[in-house]
Amino acid sequence: MTKKEKLQKLKDSMQRDMALPLRKGATQLVFGEGDPETEIMFIGEGPGYWEDQKGSPFVGNAGAFLNQLLITAGLTREKVFITNVVHHRPPQNRDPEPSEIAAYQPYLNEMIDIIDPKIIVTLGRFSMGKFLPNAKITSVHGKKFDVNWKGKNLVAVPMYHPAAGLRSVDVKQQTLDDFKKLPGILEETRNKDNNKKEEVKQMTLV
């Protein structure tokens, strides 16, 4: 089964899951979209009004800014994968509660396992908390962190949520600067992976 097929199967499971806590007040599931073969995955917080209407993540004003940020990093939406920590819109766009994040977590975890990205960029504090639970976004944004994901090495890069950049000129500039670092972080991660593969190859030849 291809990654695309696995993601569709996962989406179908979520559509059928009547226990998901936010589905009652939402218009539809906002699963996630992009390239399943990508090296970079973006995880935001939850769908807003326009995402709930269209069934796609980051399609409102924050989404327009995210598109601009991706261009800054030499990326496009079609070449990355974008999702959230909860996949139905919280009422009145409120913050997702810990119990709600926990309910969607198995699905998000499986999404990460299927895509198997080299880098996860967290957008906002709720997704950052999944990988860096004790971090403060003001001091860690734009930095790379090596995290252990189910025994595998993964690079997490916490970023401000694009919506925060729309509310503050300073945060907007910091976020633009942070996204400019992504190509270098990806290159560094690729080189590290290649060196590890080369070491394993050398060891097997000995």
For this entry, give a set of tags.
206 residues; alpha/beta; Uracil-DNA Glycosylase, subunit E; six-stranded mixed β-sheet; 6 strands; 14% strand; globular
What does this structure look like?
Belongs to the uracil-DNA glycosylase (UDG) superfamily. Type 4 (UDGa) family. One of its GO terms (biological process) is DNA repair. GO terms for molecular function: 4 iron, 4 sulfur cluster binding; metal ion binding; uracil DNA N-glycosylase activity. Keywords: 4Fe-4S, DNA damage, DNA repair, Hydrolase, Iron, Iron-sulfur, Metal-binding. This is Type-4 uracil-DNA glycosylase. The structure is a single chain. With 206 residues, this protein is α/β, with parallel strands linked by helices. It has one domain (3-205): Uracil-DNA glycosylase-like domain (Uracil-DNA Glycosylase, subunit E), CATH 3.40.470. It has nine helices and six strands. It has helices spanning 3-16, 49-54, 61-72, 98-115, 125-131, 137-140, 162-167, 169-180, 182-205; strands spanning 33-34, 40-44, 81-84, 119-123, 145-149, 152-159. Strands 1-3-2-4-6-5 form a six-stranded mixed sheet, with helices on both faces. The radius of gyration is 17 Å and the shape is globular. The model has no long low-confidence stretch (mean pLDDT 93).
CATH architecture: 3-Layer(aba) Sandwich
Structural domains: how many: 1
CATH classification, class level? Alpha Beta
Q: So, the CATH homologous superfamily?
A: Uracil-DNA glycosylase-like domain
Output the number of helix runs: 9
Shape descriptor reads globular
Tell me the total number of β-strands: 6
Q: And the CATH topology?
A: Uracil-DNA Glycosylase, subunit E
Please indicate the percent range of residues in DSSP E strands (runs of 2 or more): 5-15%
The class by helix and strand makeup works out as alpha/beta
Quick one: biggest sheet? 6 strands, mixed
Protein name: Type-4 uracil-DNA glycosylase
Pfam families: UDG
Catalytic activity: Hydrolyzes single-stranded DNA or mismatched double-stranded DNA and polynucleotides, releasing free uracil
EC number: 3.2.2.27
